[in-house]
Amino acid sequence: MRMAITLVTTAQKKKQVPQAVSYHRTELTVILSLYGRMVAAGEWRDYGISAFRDVAIFAIFRHAAENPVYRIEKRPKLANKQGQYAVIGMNGQVVKRGRELKTVLAVLERKMIRAVSG
To answer: Is residue 43 part of a domain?
Structure first.
């Protein structure tokens, strides 16, 4: 006598934990190059990096115990709309937004030129 064997599985798809958005090494090289020049000019003193599900933030401080002077944000969901990079001022206002990091950081480069020549 033959028995039929039926295989029953309860395989469920594992819920994938969304990866945090982070800066790539080439992006950090560009940001840290600007940061180093601004530290040498005496404008900036400290920084912090945060990685969340939808945004990566590079926060720039004039002093260690205060709110950031600028935040450089990367939001990949906005890449096809307004651009994934943004420089945000201390008051929360968007200073510059765009698709290319170097173009967005140019607004801070101009501030460095004023700081050194002034």
So the answer is: yes
How many domains is the chain partitioned into structurally? 1
CB proximity list for 60: less than 8 A, separation 6 or greater: 35, 38, 44, 46, 47, 68, 69, 70, 71, 72
Distance from the Cα of residue 70 to its chain's centroid: 12
User: pLDDT tens-digit profile of 70-105?
Assistant: 999 999 888 888 889 999 998 889 999 999 999 999
The answer to whether position 73 is within a domain reads yes
CA atoms within 13 A on the CB side of 46: 9
3 domain residue, yes or no: no
Q: Please report where in the chains the tokens 């004023």 appear, as a residue.
A: 114
